[in-house]
Amino acid sequence: MDYFRFLRDHAHEPLSPGRIKSWYTFSEVRQNWLGFTVDGNAGHGLGRNFAVSLHGALGSLLRNIGDEQITSSSHVEKLALVSNGVGRDTISDLTTNLIKHFLLRYTSDFAVKHVSEGDRRKVPVARAKFNYNMQTGLLHE
Asked: What superkingdom heads the lineage (predicted)?
């Protein structure tokens, strides 16, 4: 929820093309099959329309995200309320991108434990973790 609080705290600021790309757009993580699919996992990811809708909602409808008083925890599925077309697939794409660092660490730990060294390699993964000081995603290897 830290990421949503960060976005919420900046929702009053203008939304530049750079911020849309850096903060709000996420590609489909094709190596993941946790989402909703009928015939493949080459979905659309989260683009400009989602970015603009979410930015607006964080300044109004979702202004208390991460600090809810009614429930004991935050619910990311509330993001489906920001605009038409935001549903389970979009939410799963977003969630996967937000937990990408955890998934990479889990996969790496598993590989070290169960895969021989000759069959392992390091693979760079873009935007695996968000740096709040630099306000951008970081490469993970």
From this structure: Bacteria
Question: Does residue 85 share a domain with residue 52?
Answer: yes
CA distances from 101 to 35, 54, 109 (A): 17, 22, 12
- Higher model confidence: residue 74 or residue 12? 12
Query: What would the pLDDT profile of 26-54 be if each residue is shown by its tens digit?
Result: 777 777 665 555 666 566 666 777 788 88
Structure tokens belonging to residue 41: 């996992």
Distance CA 135, CA 8 (A): 14
Residues 107 and 74 in one domain: no
Q: How many domains does the chain have?
A: 2
Last residue of a domain, one of 79, 98, 117: 98
User: Parallel, antiparallel, or unpaired for β 125-131 and 136-140?
Assistant: antiparallel
Does residue 66 or residue 102 have the better pLDDT? 102
Q: Is the distance from CB of 130 to CB of 1 less than 8 angstroms?
A: no
**What is the domain extent for residue 55?**
2-98
